[in-house]
Amino acid sequence: MKKLVTSAELKLFSTIYKKFSGLSVSVNFLQKNQVFGFHKDGQMVGGFVIAEGKQLRTIECHTQDFRKYATYKYIADTSQFCEICCLWLKHSWDRHPFSNVQFWLQLAHEVRRQKKDFIIFGTNHAELAKLYHYSKKSILIATDRIANKDTYIFVAKRASFFWGVCNTLLAKISRRTTTLTKKTNVFNKYDLHYELSS
């Protein structure tokens, strides 16, 4: 895993990510945050961004405008959060067990190095959402539908995120899945803090 810092590296990340996900990410956004590229045979085959700020890309991309306020209110204080976003891994490498495990463990290692108490992350891929939800360490807090795709937002304690990734890897290897259910249908800032403290 390599931290990407040059303009050329960030432009390449932005281009490949858009091709992979259909979502745009500006080089300006990447320059303000931590960007990581996963390389094999000299080529970038995956990556992710660890970001923070008052506005969270996870919420901005995965909720409709009329639901954004409620989602921000639910997490109460964005200064306690960092987010994992713009995550991608080429399908050919996603099916390679060793590379898959290597990618996720290196992601977990980088998250472990952060200083915020909580992590927020989301996806518009249902199968990946089921794997996220399989972990006992993550909580599904919001769902929506954007551009004809269902979206899912999760939160977790940063300190327990590594073990959540281990659970996710076990689920991927054994092909186990779960039914997606939100912890609560009512957005309440105290619910999140209670659930994450348990």
What structural keywords apply?
198 residues, Aminopeptidase, 9 helices, 7 strands, globular, disordered C terminus
Question: Mind explaining what this structure looks like?
Answer:
It is a single chain. This protein has a single domain (2-197), classed as Aminopeptidase (3-Layer(aba) Sandwich), CATH 3.40.630.30. 45% of the residues lie in helices and 26% in strands. It has helices at 7-21, 27-31, 57-62, 65-75, 91-94, 97-112, 126-134, 161-174, 189-197; strands spanning 2-4, 34-40, 43-51, 81-89, 118-123, 138-146, 149-157. It has a 7-stranded mixed beta sheet with strand order 1-2-3-4-5-7-6, sandwiched between helices. The longest helix is centred in the middle third of the chain and has 16 residues, at 97-112. The protein is globular and about 45 Å long. Mean pLDDT is 81; it is low at 184-198.
In CATH terms, the superfamily is Gcn5-related N-acetyltransferase (GNAT)
With helices defined by DSSP (H or I, 4 residues minimum), what is the helix count? 9
Order of helices and strands: EHHEEHHEHHEHEEHH
Query: Spans of 5+ residues with little confidence (pLDDT < 50)?
Result: 184-198
State the end-to-end distance.
32 Å
Tell me about the biggest sheet?
7 strands, mixed
The secondary structure category is: alpha+beta
Mean pLDDT: 81
Instruction: Tally the structural domains.
Output: 1
CATH architectural designation: 3-Layer(aba) Sandwich
> What best-fitting shape do the alpha-carbon axes yield?
globular
Residue share in β-strands? 25-35%
What is the level 1 CATH name?
Answer: Alpha Beta
Name the strands of the widest sheet in spatial order: 1-2-3-4-5-7-6
**How many extended strands?**
7
The rounded Rg comes to 16 Å
CATH fold category name: Aminopeptidase
Helix content: 40-55%
